[in-house]
Model the fold of this input.
Amino acid sequence: MSSRALRRLKGNPRGQEALQAGDPELETGEEEEETQTEPAKNTSRKAKKNKKQKNICNIYELINEAENETDKNCEVEAPAEEEHVESKLDPDNQEKEKSDNEESEKQEETREIEKSSVSVKASKKKKKKKNKKTTAGDAQEEGCTDDIDSILETIENQNGLSYRNECSRNADTRPILYVEHRNLNPETELKRYFGARAVLGDQSRPRQRQRQFHRSTWMTTLKNTWPRFSKPGISMSLLETRDGVQYFTFEHSREYQQVQFKFLDAVESMDPNNIVLLLQMNPYHIDSLLQLSDVCRIQDDQEMAKDLIERALYSFECASHPVFSLTSGTSRLDYLRPENRAFYLSLYKHMMFLEKRGCPRTALEYCKLILSLDPDNDPLCMLLLLDFLSLRSREYSFLSRIYEEWEAHRNLSQLPNFAYSVGLCYYFLSQQEDLPASECTQKQQTADHLLQNALLMFPSVLMPLLEICAVEPDAAVSSHAFFGPRTQIGQPPALNELVALFVGRSHSLWKDPAVMLWLERNVKEVLQRVDANDPVVEEYEKKRKLRYQSAPRSIHRHVILSEIKEATAALPLEVTAQPVMGFDPLPPLDSVASYTRPERANRVATDESTLSLFLRSLLPNFNLQGGVRPEEDLEVAHAGRQLNQEVNRLMGAMRDMLANIQFQEPPREDNPERDEEEWD
Done:
């Protein structure tokens, strides 16, 4: 702090001390004062230069220098104060002195501001130096700890205790089905491709007035175009916790159950307008959103279909339990409960929309999320889709890791999609440039081995794959009996369904010319092994005949949801004969229902038209209340059976009549017996 600021704090006006002391130098002229101030200024400048050039080793030298500077500033300011006092005593020069004083005060204020900025900069530099010293000390401590850890590791390795370290490292790694929150948002993947400005646009700068505070969700966000959200009557409860795994279930309130019954009536009416009316009254009813989404998708309104699925997911996420985790992989939902199935289907349909949108990485996270809800039973057979999304998103390490960890207890190599996709995964890993040459050759050999085993186990995949890729096979391959049509005709129906599903979904991954050359080389090696009567060929043939006799219901459900034409054509008749609803395709036969739908009351006669009422009154079992008398149930059933028999007889007679109809051919021009004047 300068001496001038100290005087102001004490309350002494400028130049008052000099007057009280009776300094005789006050009567001196202005010329002498100017000559005295100029050398003082020069000395202060020299002192500043010397201060910059001087290297200080001791901290206390700074204190001494600060005191010297204050003394010098006092000596410099003393003549200025004397000049100010003289100007006050002389009335003629007061006006001039006022202007001079104002200018001098402005200059002094600017100098003080500069000094304060310099002091702030110096303090910042000191702080940086202190931080550097502390970071250097921390680095030394870390280096010491690293040395200690390395010494302990060497001691444990010498004592044979390195196995504990490996176990601890494996425990620290994330589980295979761990889901990252940021990857559930498709905008993160789109930003990676196109940049944040292209993806967000005007949304990156939200206005203050348009801000609305809602519950934060991970999968979807509330849109302004949606109806006002209110709790639809869905809640989630924790059933039990066993072995670190938590089992949850969704529950419906009584009001939601009544809406569900109205929805089932609307579905039976086969009129989508009834579902639309129901959604207007209950805009967040889950099954109505799922069914109407399928209707919009059939009508090629993809944006509206996607929006309805996102609305259903938002409703589910708002109703989720506080302990329920989307990412840990330890939360379970039983597919046997009808309340939980809608959540599975909403996730699956949202995942398919993301995959079509060009976000395979985000779709892979949702695939892992669905699989983590019930990994043992896998009700939607996500393992038939996991390999495709992993290859599309170039997550080769994840695919190879899940194959290595799950092959022992899940037999992933017995699925055609995994048998071929894992080999392709190792081929892509061998083509990476950042790997050393030895590791590349090792992965290339692994890829060749896996692909040859896949060709030997599932030879019926090759010809449909080449056909859909528009590649003409070699004559030696097409004429060989191992890849011929006999293998496709003689394979079990369940295997035919799996092969059609894999070829129809993953054929785009095999169109690369380099991949085709790799496939061709391995096909020739497989033919050599077949011609050499390799015992593996006979072993795999026995496995094909014993297994794949009938596919489980979950695979049929996955094929229906995938909507791949080649796979749906291979579905058995007992699946295609029954009606399939979009809100619950192929429900489990052993479903666990928490509430049942009440029996529908028969329609009252006043709801019918006059003509239908008159025609129904002609029947012998007519009842005005719309019901059938209980004593006539057997008679009605017997009459119904007779009617069915009569209808079948009539249909048979119609078929015979249509088969025996013969049409007379018109006369030809080369007929010599034709009368030329016949057409005149």
